[in-house]
Amino acid sequence: MSDLQNDLFLRALLKQPVERTPLWIMRQAGRYLPEYRATRKRAGDFLTLCKTPELACEVTLQPLDRYELDAAILFSDILTIPDAMGLGLHFTEGEGPKFSNPITQIDDVNRIATLEPINDLGYVFDAVSLIKKELHGRVPLIGFSGSPWTLATYMVEGQTSREFRKIKTMLYKEPQMLEQLLEILAKSVADYLTAQIRAGAQAVMIFDTWGGVLSREAYLKFSLFPMKKIVEKLLQLKTETEVPVILFTKGGGNWLPEMAATGCHGLGLDWTTEIDHARSLVGEKVALQGNLDPAVLYGSDKVIRNEVNKVLDKFGQGSGHVFNLGHGIQQFVDPDKLTVLVDAVKELSPSFHSPV
Amino acid sequence: MSDLQNDLFLRALLKQPVERTPLWIMRQAGRYLPEYRATRKRAGDFLTLCKTPELACEVTLQPLDRYELDAAILFSDILTIPDAMGLGLHFTEGEGPKFSNPITQIDDVNRIATLEPINDLGYVFDAVSLIKKELHGRVPLIGFSGSPWTLATYMVEGQTSREFRKIKTMLYKEPQMLEQLLEILAKSVADYLTAQIRAGAQAVMIFDTWGGVLSREAYLKFSLFPMKKIVEKLLQLKTETEVPVILFTKGGGNWLPEMAATGCHGLGLDWTTEIDHARSLVGEKVALQGNLDPAVLYGSDKVIRNEVNKVLDKFGQGSGHVFNLGHGIQQFVDPDKLTVLVDAVKELSPSFHSPV
């Protein structure tokens, strides 16, 4: 597979034989790492870190220098697209992202419909190119985006939410407005991921952090349908090698067959979904990524090894599994605990595969 | 069924024939009602409202005066037991409940093991008796408690949490300590619900608000197992008429068969679980309660009627359904919208039942 020294991750996503289970960790470049905190401090603030390709590259590579991971993931924020749409993204200490100009009416939707946000996202593609160069083919690079529904929740709520009152009011009161917004976002996300692939991303993942707050019917219409349109566009791209697409809906364990039917290559699973059950449902169709409870990393070394083994054992024999946590690694995890996890996957997973 | 004028709710939970689908609304006595806000203001603060039987009775009855609901539910706080254990419950405006003395070590667990918290919860049983008297048999009265796991999350975290870092650290690092804590809580909750039944509650519900943040294995061990012990104790009580027990784990849609196997009479469903799917899985064994997305009440009258009809239609013909939202009614709902919902259930549900 081109000049990649380690293509385990891509092979597992394509369900090709692998000699051991590949792994990477959601949010692997993050606050639990002292070297990340140092770079972040040097950057001054989070958005500067995201918007400076050299710094984004630096933190992307940090976890790879510390751990034997099988993929890098672009360091960026999930809200780059709405930021480029002029919604006034800013971060308040301890409260997460906020938008100064949230979407509240149809005029706002019409206004953003005329934009080409990727014109202002050059810093992301520059970061992808730079990371790709600095990786020297060690492992593949994953690009990513938030899902249209997830982006819309922040754009309409103006911030993180618990009850999603504003966007659900739109959903039940003015569904056409929401559909129009999601259509614009689906186009933007497809363009955004295409540009990341053109810049060098070898796989892409769509993070649907908030799809799980919807009823089944609403999920299918307002979260999955726009993601399906993106997957379809990405599958039509002409690329040198196949670029796998992973969908991850947190709390989406009830909708795996419908997610797999989008044509994506892999599904991310959070820790509330059993990976053996998921495999029996959709394992013929897609690879599975996950799904250790991130909190296991607060346990003893023995507990971590034991829990890693359970996930491997539940997935069972054969390819199609990418080991990961069921959600991002948490800020207060001791970095040495991740070493225990990585070692356990390396050591325990070969017995679930035939030698290649 | 004794001197009850309306026993639809109890009959539906026992899967006996009913002429229409009964309904009540989680958090029906709550901030969306101006009369509730007035009483709350008069009480001064939330805990005084909970701890004054006359005031708790007043707010319990308010929604019944406004809407034709088929059950009353005791107005109380979910954290009365840990409060009686001396953990120092208090409320901070906009931040929810906090404990001054959370459980952080085994000494804390040993300390609360010696307590009989129900000795200090007389105000709850007084409220139950008073409400029962003031109801004059209009509808049944539901008693309730938080689940041991849910109580433990607040007791260990000291407050509402997003990642549940402290209690999950205990779970993965010192599981025996957590089991000991949960055993104490299971006993306390069983005693608490028994005393509510003795005081007049005609059904009880266990709210497992946070069971859904666990993996399957952890859920079965740390959330469901203690609830099962409570259900078993309650089923052994000698009472004049059968007292149905409802279990509700928010986000527990993956574990319905195991929940139903506890011997409980009914399962609460949040809106992410399909009620037709749930019925096909466990409908022979238990009644189902739910499960409209609370945000539907932000929709137009037409949308509300339409969504009510979908839930009724998905459950289908026959008894064993108690209509409810999938979670508590939200603070910013227009009270008139609940009238639309109640009217829709009254009008549309008889066609799903044979005349009794």
Give an account of the 3D structure.
The structure is a homodimer of 356-residue chains. Chain A has 356 residues and is α/β, with parallel strands linked by helices. Chain A has a single domain, classed as TIM Barrel (Alpha-Beta Barrel). The first copy, chain A, is 47% helix and 12% strand. Chain A has a 7-stranded parallel β-sheet. A two-stranded antiparallel ribbon of chain A has the order 2-3. In chain A, α12 links the parallel β6 and β7. Chain A is globular, with a radius of gyration of 19 Å. Chain A starts with 7 loop residues before the first helix and ends in an 8-residue tail after the last helix. At the A-B interface, α9, α11 and α14 of A face α9, α11 and α14 of B.
